[in-house]
Amino acid sequence: MPNSAKLLTVGDDNPETCETMLNDTIWANEFTYKQIQVLAQYFQAFYIEKNGIIFKEGDPSGELSILTTGKIQIQKNDKALIVLVKGRSFGEMSLFDTQPRSADAIALKYCEYLSIDCESFNRLCNEHPVLSLQFVVIITRIISQRLRKTSGQLSDYLDQSD
Fold first, then answer.
1. What integer is the mean pLDDT of 17-30?
2. Each residue of 41-74: pLDDT tens digit?
3. Which of 33, 54, 102, 145 has the highest local Cβ count within 10 Å?
4. What's the Cα-to-Cα distance from 26 to each of 31, 44, 76, 111, 138, rounded to whole Å?
5. Which domain holds residue 121?
6. Cα 56 → chain centroid
7. Strand ranges for the chain from DSSP E
8. Does 2 score more than 80 pLDDT?
9. In-domain check, residue 84
10. Domain tally for the chain?
11. CATH of the domain at 25
12. Is residue 162 part of a domain?
């Protein structure tokens, strides 16, 4: 479980909570409602108060999360890298490589988010291979877009230093 986040429970029906939360993000545009219902079974919902630490650089990893409410700042050496809003995912790389966290994630306001850990993702892959492949393609697209943006920023930085 994340550093200061708490499991979000509404009654005893966490999959329904996850289903509603996931369906209320841009991720719902990528899947049918039936697929959202299936995916929700593999996620857990969390909440964290303003200024709460979701994870710190160097923490063990292994889960991808999708922000459903609030704002999260990803930072390194106390410098903001990006501010994430509803629908944005974070921790994509850690789902696949389980390397320690490369930055901090801090809640800028009250947040709710969904997380899928490696074990749940592996179960998804075994039980729903076509859906899991679709999920991986979307994650790959997100990582690719972020890499392109970072490459552009690095190029601009290098041009300025000449």
1. 91
2. 999 999 999 999 999 999 998 999 999 999 999 9
3. 54
4. 10, 18, 27, 17, 12
5. 6-157
6. 15
7. 6-7, 44-48, 53-55, 63-69, 72-76, 79-84, 89-90, 104-107, 111-117
8. no
9. yes
10. 1
11. 2.60.120.10
12. no
